[in-house]
Task: structure prediction
Amino acid sequence: MKEIYEPKFVEKLFDKMLGIYTEAFGNSKNAFQIFKRDNFEVEYINYFYGCATGIKGRKIK
Result:
């Protein structure tokens, strides 16, 4: 069965989206502050002992 996406395509898409995210938010701590509002439940996460960070959450109805 043929893959839907070629690996190079996915890699280019990821690089592009990472660049857009970085330009818009700077880093995940800034994005966390933006989404930390009344209608969002958000958590700041450290990965690899703080070498990488991220956020996860959901919109509260």
Summary: The radius of gyration is 15 Å. The helical segments are 7-25, 28-35. The mean pLDDT is 77. Residues 46 and 52 are 6 Å apart (CA to CA).
